[in-house]
Amino acid sequence: MIVITGASGNVGREIVPLLLQSGTAFRALGRDAGALKRRFGPGLDAVDFDFANPASWDAALAGVRFLLIVLPIPRPQIINQQIKPFIRSAIAKGCQHIAYISVPAAAHNAKIPHHITERFLEGCGIDYTLLRAAYFMQNFSRPDPGHDVDLRDRDELYLPLGSDVHYLIDTRDLAAATVAVMLNPKAHARKAYDLVGDIKTMPEAAQVFSDILGRPIHYTDASLWGFSWRAFRRGARLSLIVAMAYVYGLLSRQTRVEPLDDGDLSALLECRPLSLRDYVRDYRECWAKK
User: Fold this and answer.
1) Is 11 helix (H, G, I), strand (E, B) or coil?
2) What is the 3-state secondary structure (H, E, C) of 195-223?
3) Which of 115, 122, 159, 191 could form a disulfide with 106 if both were Cys (CB 3.0 to 4.6 A apart)?
4) In sequence order, which residues have a C-beta less than 8 Å from that of residue 19 and are 6 or more positions away?
5) What pLDDT digit, counting tens, does each position of 243-288 carry?
């Protein structure tokens, strides 16, 4: 049995339809199983689940053989208090393979929680696959914390990301790559993949939006404080603001010994990944003037 956490999130909502199409037996976990069934169909095997509620773990993990862990932005104490015990519980239930959606920086930055989780998985004695995903393109169309509003109403890409290059991935590609691992786990056992679909500076990204939307989009290199304050004034959840500020702070300080490319993602997909231009073209209605 394949079990996936975060089934209603940015990645999970793309994974569930692909698994349904494959005909593979799986269980979708989320905080509202009823909402998952309404979204994907009443026949979906969905279970109420919360990492913070160990009482929900038994039903979630019954019969598990392959587990996908998709987390919100984790804090170190959550890794130690919730995620590690959950992984131990899954292994005790018979899990043989765990895939974890991580970030590229986890490979070399010991200070971030993803690094802690990766090292723990490597020492658990079962198969694992580390899917180090770049920044989600779909963040640009999210109503919370308001990137879609900035682009639609202000013709502005407002992010605290400087002018360095950044690695991007369309969550549709991330979902497809993840399902490829799920359906052939032995081929991907004890491997780590850096999943990148496109590479852009934010000024270059703004030009892509300009070209496709047919109007000038400018990039503002916001401060973390300015970004957080604007999101707060729009009513964004404080937990989300803190999480996104953490992500952008991490991205603005990212360093690597070697640059990344789209090789791992192309191999998993067996085709060219979606580019930022593809994403903007497909989602252009999100930023249409009203």
Assistant:
1) coil
2) ECCEEEEHHHHHHHHHHHHCCCCEEEECC
3) 115
4) 2, 4, 26, 179, 182
5) 788 778 766 555 454 688 899 999 999 999 999 999 999 999 999 9
